Amino acid sequence: MYSIGEIAKLTGITAFTLRYYEKIGVLPKPRRQDGKRSYDEQDLQYVRFIHGLKETGMSLENIAAFTEDGCLLTHNDSDMDICEILYKRINMLDKHIDLLEQQMKRLESVKAIAHEKSAFYSAMLKGRTSKRVQDI
Questions:
Q1: Residue 67, Cβ neighbours under 10 Å: how many?
Q2: Phi and psi (nearest 5°) for 31?
Q3: Which of 78, 75, 13, 7 minimizes the C-alpha distance to 43?
Q4: pLDDT tens for residues 41-71?
Q5: Cα separations (Å) of 112 from 4, 30, 102, 103, 109?
Q6: What predicted TM-score, i.e. pTM, was given to this entire model?
Q7: Is 115 exposed, middle or buried (0-12, 13-18, 19+ CB in 10 A)?
Q8: Which residues contact 52 (CB under 8 A, 6 or more apart)?
Q9: How far is residue 49's CA from residue 83's CA, in Å, rounded to a whole number?
Q10: Residue 28 contacts by C-beta under 8 Å, 6 or more apart in sequence?
């Protein structure tokens, strides 16, 4: 079992943020042991997943909806409701993946320009240093 401080260290999310995510519904309420929050390995993996969604630009509102649906999956007996939730989650993730792919294309373009500029400046520097050597 992990404390909130240990989860914070392992995920890079502050304990304050974890409490905030819990308060707004992004994370479900954790178990308590002796009045303190207690997390298991599955909780750790879930927090890492949520953190990954946030780091890649998913809004807290969408993450909260995603989390809510996840909780409903474990407390729902109707196959129809479960299918609806799963389709919704797949749709949310597919849209997020599309946004990530667009971001990656933009970043690759910026990266290519940065490489071109670096090569250009390196060539300029090489020309200047070889000219200095010839002057000596």
A1: 21
A2: -65, 160
A3: 7
A4: 999 999 998 999 899 888 898 888 877 766 5
A5: 41, 45, 16, 14, 5
A6: 0.65
A7: exposed
A8: none
A9: 22
A10: 22, 67, 71
The closest of 44, 43, 39, 37 to 10, measured between CA atoms, is 44
Where is pLDDT greater, at 62 or 20? 20
**Nearest CA-CA partner of 66 in 9, 118, 28:** 28
As a three-state string, the secondary structure of the chain is: CECHHHHHHHHCCCHHHHHHHHHHCCCCCCEEECCEEEECHHHHHHHHHHHHHHHCCCCHHHHHHHHHHHHHHHCCCCHHHHHHHHHHHHHHHHHHHHHHHHHHHHHHHHHHHHHHHHHHHHHHHHHHHHHHHHHC
**Interior CA angle at 55 toward 107 and 31, to 5°?**
165
Query: Residue 37 carries which side chain, given as an amino acid letter?
Result: R
